[in-house]
Amino acid sequence: MANLLIADALTKRYEIGSVPVEALCGVDFVLQQGEFVAIMGPSGSGKSTFLHLLGGLDVPSSGEVIFDGMHLTHLSDTQLAILRRRRFGFIFQFFNLLPTLTAAENVGLPLLIDSGRMQDKAGRIAELLDLTGLGNRAGHYPDQLSGGEQQRVAIARAMMLHPAIIFADEPTGNLDAASGEAILRLLRSACDMQGQTVLMVTHNPGAAAVADRIVLLRDGLIESDQQSRGVHQK
């Protein structure tokens, strides 16, 4: 598999009052195309900071993030926004759906943001809703959907523009056990059946077990990076 995303000596410092805090301390990391990698670690270990830096949602204090040969720190704000919009998909713990849009409209939202028209991609929207088991819920609004259904809409939205990487930040953290397992099966299937690359932050060892690799962060450093011991076999 080809190297798709590289972190080179990645560091992030914050100022809390007059006290500097190092969230990441020179982390090196490689994500290969088609991999499913879980990032774990205790609260304050830097895992969400790490995900945000890799996804171009934040900028490092030092070091580099290199995606598909491009150095993210060399991109303008506009170029970075276009990269995030067209090449990355994001899934968050609290869904972030627009309440005034239907499930289908939420899935197609990346098209509108990218100056496209939902009508031109109605087939793609329907395909993703079917893939996520929501074909019969296309016209429902978020408040008419369960938490698990809303997260499936968020996954379909993240996949809308065929992203190179899906970044998932605690995607099952706000769900009951059954809904969380369904979301993990969906992400695993996207990786296995469609070659989707997935980078997921989770605090749950059971969720991490569906990944190919588990990266453990502690105190801003990678403590271990090893193959998952879960039941999954590629």
Structural notes for this entry:
This protein is α/β, with parallel strands linked by helices and 234 residues long. The chain has a domain of 162 residues: 3-Layer(aba) Sandwich (Rossmann fold), CATH 3.40.50.300. The strands form 2 sheets. The protein has a 6-stranded mixed β-sheet, with helices on both faces. A hairpin with a 2-residue loop joins strand 9 and strand 10. Helix 5 runs parallel beside helix 6. It starts with a strand and ends in a 7-residue tail after the last strand. The mean pLDDT is 90.
Helix content: 25-40%
The CATH superfamily of the domain at 3-98 and 162-227 appears as P-loop containing nucleotide triphosphate hydrolases
**Quaternary organization:** single chain
Q: Identify the overall geometry.
A: globular
Annotate the secondary structure layout:
Blueprint: E1 3-16, E2 19-32, E3 36-40, H1 47-54, E4 62-67, E5 70-71, H2 77-87, E6 88-91, H3 103-113, H4 122-131, H5 147-159, E7 165-169, H6 177-194, E8 197-201, H7 205-208, E9 213-218, E10 221-227
Parallel strand pairs: 3-8, 3-9, 6-7, 7-8
Antiparallel strand pairs: 1-2, 1-4, 4-5, 9-10
Helix pairs in contact: 3-4, 3-5, 4-5, 5-6
Descriptive tags:
234 residues; alpha/beta; Rossmann fold
Give a short summary of the structure.
With 234 residues, the chain is α/β, with parallel strands linked by helices.
